Fold:
Amino acid sequence: MISFTTLAVLSLVGVVALFGALALFLTAIANELEKIGGESKGYGAQASFLSKIRLGLRAIEVETGNIPTQVTKLNGTLTSVRDGLVVIDNNFAGVIAGVSRQAGGAS
Structure:
């Protein structure tokens, strides 16, 4: 019976320690979030840094919203440029082969 009582008391002490640590850490987190909240502007109003970050991220989202459509157009253009460069490469290979034959025949 004594061991059961000891285990119950130890469990109770563990639960109290767990909730105490939880309360401490939640208080610390809340204090850090208050610091992030922003500087006081009078009458208790604060300029929230988090809202400024959210506004900036929204602006980035709006400004970069047309990138997916433009990238597909760019991919098509770059594919045609690649194909043109392959043709130029083949032409240069033919020119080099012709110049090599001409140089070989002139010797």
